[in-house]
Amino acid sequence: MEGRRQDGGRGTLVGRSREQAALREVAERARGGQGGLVLVSGEAGIGKTRLVDSFLLAEGLPVLRGPSRDTRLAAPFSPIAAVLRAGLAASPGALDHLPLRGYLAPLLPELGPAPSQDGNSPAALHEAIRGALRALMESGPTALVLEDLQWADHATLDLLPALVGGLADRPVLVVGTFRSEELPRAHPLRRARQELRRAGVLEELHLGPLDPAETAELARARLGAPLTPALAGILHARSEGVPLFVEELAAALQGNGGLAPRADGRLDLAPGAAVEVPLTLREAIGLGLDRFPPGVRAAAELAAVLGPAFDADLLLDLADEQAFDALTGGGWLVEEGGGAAFRHALVRDAIYAGIPWSRRRTLHRQVAARLEEVGAPPGVTAEHWLAGREPGRAREALLASAEASCRLHAYRDAAGAVGRALDLWPPGAEEARRLEVLDQLGRCAQACGLLAEAGAAWREAAGARRAAGDTA
């Protein structure tokens, strides 16, 4: 099972004693066979993953990890599939005698053929998932980590309360993280949290910014020396106590020759140097990238187009291997789950925002074409075609994504993909097919309880057929 991820030498945990104590309390209950869920929230860069990873490493709990990075673009239940694969890698025979094992095949094709469509149903799939997770927990206390739930697909979040409830009598600590600023009012995680609260199986922790003393302590850990009060004050004011920004600011100043030790060993801004303290995270990251040759920076931009986490082979197919090694050696990219990832999603976002739009479009087209060649999930490919300004190809990928979601009974995700495909439909083109897709939208929306949306789609299709003289 997976332990703490490699983070290029960063990730020191400072403060958070109250939150660690709360996690210890829930972990003790889980060890006693009373499973539950802890949701850790906070703004991007505030240290949610850092807290969870540091705590689990100290506790020595085996970890099954299900990241939700860009799973809104991938197949439904992707975080759950990642957890199941991690569990099977650690215990290959754990599901051999699971009664509903065959129903997991649409989610994990490596398990063999799926049952006939007549025997397949949402209830059977959901029960198979719950049974598989319970079976994987038989070996002893385990932590199940679901990251970045603000990005998770509807199917995963709709199933979350039932999954946690099904593990309530198992020695399992379920930890979820999400960005509080990316949770609009209608987000499905809000509904899931309400159900979990009513069931009494939810603990919630919200992380705030570091105080000035904690900011100084984190910068000291990053730089290897204490700071003068003046420099510590500047770092706290600029970073507003966000740990990732503290580290990036410190690294930018150090790499730019902006720091100098005083006689007492404390670090201060270099005297007499034309030093500018970066105002934003993007500016701090840009200063670090400026030290790389053009080829390495180009590889970093390509990696940013691929996303916060990606298949390393895909980047190596499209970029120079030496540039990839420079990014991993410099701590910009880290190993994660057999692939590669930026050390933080905000680092990726900052690099991506600095790519000129014309180059960004070209890179997205390049990536989309390669993803189609290797058979990537069509939802991922669709987003790259959209960013590459190829609406026709994006539309086809979205329709393929909807079909894949329907096979997993993820009808809300399917309806979303079909609706986006219809938004891209050129006026007057393939009208008969457009009406069939409208009918499909109606069926998907009806299947997931969106009755108003289903009625609207069917009325639009019927009205268009009547206008065309079809009275059947």
TrEMBL record:
* Every Orc1-like AAA ATPase domain range: 12-175
Q: Which UniProt keywords apply?
A: ATP-binding, Nucleotide-binding
Q: Which top-rank group of organisms is this from?
A: Bacteria
User: What SUPFAM superfamilies does UniProt report for this protein, alphabetically?
Assistant: P-loop containing nucleoside triphosphate hydrolases (SSF52540)
Q: Which GO terms describe its cellular component?
A: cytoplasm
Molecular functions (GO terms): adenylate cyclase activity; ATP binding
Q: Which Pfam families match?
A: AAA_16
> What is the name listed in the Swiss-Prot or TrEMBL entry for this protein?
Orc1-like AAA ATPase domain-containing protein
Record the organism.
Deinococcus aerius
